[in-house]
């Protein structure tokens, strides 16, 4: 029995808890990409930098708050600064749309043109972010670091294996649940949300029934900006904030959106967790797990690791390729917004 | 036609010999690239030595009267072997340098040695290439370094770990020549003293999340985690993730991890961790510090080694009474090691005088130079302990 509990603690500590947090971050990012894809019909490569921008503004505001001694007690001060980060990111999205994307929308440019334009926007935003905050690591997490420390868990339960839960992980999962709930309520219950879904389903029909396309695009950018700022801040809070990492993050986020079926919010969330957990499960070393579960003597000498952690990012691509080969429309096909 | 060509060739050779009257030392370091923040001070270190020798008016190098020595800089880029080879080629064929102080990074140093220095028979003294592969490389007796090989650091790390009573260790290294060489050396040496290495795995720098890497290390287990990485890069991420998940509590930090920013970023949890980095408590280090400060140079990593590399070249020329590499390459070990009068930084003129009168010197310099094996620094290391949120030196070995 203790062996089973030890295994459970071990797997929770290294796979389930980090997987839930990472999955939530990916899901929020993928949702943003999916919303933009559903309404504006292009893959927004600048989304990673939008996340980075939101996190950057949040960090700058957090520093101001910290300097004035304002904090949230055990919760990170960044949560207090986040609304300003969201507003700034929405502002950036709307300004980019006004200056760049609207021109191509009026010209009815092809999706490939859009995609290349968004790559250009991505580099521009990346440069802007480095110009403001620099290319280095920034530390802005404060408040209580842990909900549960590994050592405390061991003392509490008497097990061999510890289970650590960081407050940033708890905050990430809770925030993601709230944001997703609000988003789904908005899309399914409100008039504006329904008009967005209609526009995404069939643009011409929606236009004929009197839906204002500029308003739908406006709302879509507000949602995308909010999601980006929240996802970027949560990722920075949980891991670390460094402008370069958001370029790397773009790949698993896109994989999540595509695996779930681009344009489908439910798929984006499922895709985020599929990618996060498979990255962790495939690169995990099962030596200790097998040691606990197998009878004595049968435990493996080696690490029992399927794939070295060097190949972590390639897991997303493997899944992406498999899904595109077997089910090109994604896991949740047939439904959009 | 053939006669004309011959005549031209002969003229060029004569011109070359006429130019060879100047004594020149090439200073080839990566002024651009990953260690561009370190190299200006290193170059200044070498130039301080050259200026000191020139001021003393004692350098003959086989000529009748005192000779001026000129340092000529060239860019090794640290990572681009082709660019480094071209730069070194230009130093030798067009600037006609008599010896090279450099290069800096192990990869380009190997490239320059094999493609340019050996082909032209020119002596190279590197202040900072630490790859163990350079110890055994074929060099025609032309290559020396004032930096210790990472093979030596591996030995020091293994000794410290054993003395502190650790029996099983896990190693993670930054995925490049430095990290891999050091990690392998630590593994070999630790096994040789009877320890067990549970896992020796790499990590990439510049990632946001090291949870998966730490998970694998945690499953392998071990009493201490050796982090052969960089303190501002993946090394810090690995330590943070290990502490967060409770995977490891104590860390060993080799030279790439020693710096104020690490305890500052991690906090009190790092207390009790240990480490080591090149360092010496010899009077030479303090003296070099004074000289460098007077010259306006900040003493950073490998700056004393650069001063010493340039000094060794000039001493060897003086001892051999020649500025030809083939003549003085055998003298470098002699002037660096006992017997002889000990020479500290600021005494280069005194050393040259002794050599000119046929005496013998034992150059100590700013980094306690003692060349072993094929001509590399024996290596002095300072042992560190993290106490009250700061790296504190607790001994030398």
3D architecture notes:
The complex is a heterodimer of chains A (337) and B (397). Chain A is built from 13 helices and two strands. Chain A is mainly α. Chain A has one domain (2-326): ABC transporter involved in vitamin B12 uptake, BtuC (Orthogonal Bundle). In chain A, α2 (47-67) crosses α9 (213-238) and α2 (47-67) crosses α10. The radius of gyration of chain A is 21 Å and the shape is globular. The termini of chain A are far apart. The mean pLDDT of chain A is 89. In chain B, strands 2-1-3-4-5-14-13 form a seven-stranded mixed sheet, sandwiched between helices. Chain B has a seven-stranded mixed sheet with strand order 7-6-8-9-10-15-16, sandwiched between helices. Chain B has a two-stranded parallel sheet with strand order 11-12. Chain B folds into two domains: 20-148 and 282-377, Response regulator (Rossmann fold, 3-Layer(aba) Sandwich), CATH 3.40.50; 151-278 and 379-396, Response regulator (Rossmann fold, 3-Layer(aba) Sandwich), CATH 3.40.50.2300. Chain B has helices spanning 2-19, 39-56, 81-93, 106-120, 133-136, 150-163, 177-192, 211-220, 234-245, 261-266, 283-294, 303-320, 325-328, 332-336, 348-356; strands at 23-29, 69-75, 99-102, 123-126, 143-148, 168-174, 196-203, 224-228, 251-253, 274-278, 341-343, 361-363, 371-372, 376-377, 381-387, 390-396. Chain B contains 15 helices and 16 strands. In chain B, α12 runs parallel beside α15. The longest helix of chain B has 18 residues, at 2-19. Mean pLDDT of chain B is 88; it is low at 14-20. Chain B has 397 residues and is of the alpha/beta class. Chains A and B meet through α1, α5, α10, α11 and α12 of A and β7, α8 and α9 of B.
């Amino acid at each position: 029995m203790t062996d089973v509990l030890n295994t459970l603690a071990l797997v929770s500590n290294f796979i389930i808890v980090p997987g839930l947090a990472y999955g939530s971050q990916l899901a929020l990012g993928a949702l943003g990409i999916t919303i933009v894809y559903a309404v504006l019909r292009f893959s927004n490569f600048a989304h990673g930098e939008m996340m980075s921008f939101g996190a950057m503004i949040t960090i700058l505001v957090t520093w101001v708050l910290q300097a004035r001694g304002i904090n949230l007690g055990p919760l990170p001060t960044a949560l207090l600064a986040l609304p300003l980060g969201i507003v700034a990111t929405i502002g950036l999205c709307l300004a980019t749309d006004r200056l760049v994307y609207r021109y191509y929308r009026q010209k009815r440019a092809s999706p490939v043109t859009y995609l290349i334009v968004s790559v250009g926007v991505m580099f521009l935003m990346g440069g802007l972010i480095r110009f403001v905050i620099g290319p280095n690591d920034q530390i802005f997490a404060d408040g209580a670091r842990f909900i549960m420390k590994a050592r405390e868990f061991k003392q509490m339960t008497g097990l061999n294996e510890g289970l650590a839960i960081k407050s940033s992980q708890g905050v990430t999962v809770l925030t993601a649940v709230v944001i997703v709930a609000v988003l789904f309520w908005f899309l399914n219950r409100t008039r504006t949300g329904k008009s967005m879904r209609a526009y995404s389903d069939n643009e011409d029909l929606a236009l004929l029934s009197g839906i204002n396309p500029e308003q739908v695009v406006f709302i879509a950018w507000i949602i995308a900006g909010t999601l980006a700022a929240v996802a970027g801040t949560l990722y920075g809070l949980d891991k670390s904030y460094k402008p370069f990492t958001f370029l790397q993050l773009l790949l698993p986020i896109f994989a999540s959106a595509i695996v779930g079926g681009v344009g489908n919010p439910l798929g984006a969330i499922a895709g985020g967790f599929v990618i996060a957990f498979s990255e962790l499960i495939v690169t995990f070393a099962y030596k200790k797990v097998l040691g606990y579960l197998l009878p004595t003597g049968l435990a493996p000498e080696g690490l029992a690791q399927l794939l070295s952690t060097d190949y972590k990012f390639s897991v997303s691509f493997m899944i992406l390729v498999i899904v595109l080969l077997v089910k090109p429309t994604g896991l949740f096909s047939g439904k959009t917004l | 036609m053939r006669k004309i060509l011959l005549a031209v060739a002969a003229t060029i050779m004569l011109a070359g010999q006429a130019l060879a009257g100047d004594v020149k030392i090439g200073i080839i370091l990566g002024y651009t690239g990953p260690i561009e923040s370190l190299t200006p001070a290193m170059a200044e270190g070498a130039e301080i030595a050259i200026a000191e020798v020139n001021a003393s008016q004692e350098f003959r190098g086989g000529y009748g009267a005192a000779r001026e020595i000129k340092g000529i800089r060239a860019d090794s880029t640290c990572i681009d072997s082709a660019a480094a080879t071209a730069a070194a080629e230009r130093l030798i064929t067009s600037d006609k340098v008599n010896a090279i102080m450099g290069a800096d990074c192990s990869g380009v140093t190997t490239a320059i040695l094999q493609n340019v220095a050996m082909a032209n028979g020119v002596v190279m003294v590197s202040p900072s290439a630490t790859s163990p592969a350079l110890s055994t490389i074929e060099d025609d007796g032309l290559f020396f370094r004032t930096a210790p090989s990472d093979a030596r650091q591996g030995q020091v790390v293994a000794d410290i770990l054993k003395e502190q009573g650790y029996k099983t260790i896990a190693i993670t290294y930054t995925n490049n020549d430095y990290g891999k060489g050091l990690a392998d050396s630590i593994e070999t040496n630790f096994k040789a003293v009877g320890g067990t290495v549970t896992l020796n795995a790499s990590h990439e720098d510049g990632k946001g999340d090291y949870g998966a890497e730490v998970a694998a290390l945690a499953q392998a287990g071990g009493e201490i985690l050796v982090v052969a990485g960089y303190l501002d890069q993946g090394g810090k991420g690995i330590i943070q993730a290990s502490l967060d998940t409770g995977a490891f509590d104590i860390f060993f930090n080799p030279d790439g991890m020693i710096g104020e920013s690490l305890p500052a970023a991690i906090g009190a949890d790092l207390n009790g961790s240990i480490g080591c980095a090149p360092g010496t408590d010899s009077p030479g280090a303090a003296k070099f510090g004074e000289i460098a400060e007077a010259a306006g140079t900040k003493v950073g990593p490998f700056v004393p080694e650069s001063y010493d590399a340039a000094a060794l070249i000039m001493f060897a020329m003086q001892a051999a009474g020649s500025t030809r590499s083939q003549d003085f390459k055998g003298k470098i070990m002699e002037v660096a090691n006992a017997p002889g009068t000990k020479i500290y930084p600021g005494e280069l003129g005194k050393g040259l005088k002794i050599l000119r009168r046929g005496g013998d010197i034992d150059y100590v310099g700013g980094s306690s130079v003692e060349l072993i094996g094929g001509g590399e620094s024996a290596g002095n290391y300072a042992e560190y302990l993290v106490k009250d949120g700061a790296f504190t030196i607790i001994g030398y070995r």
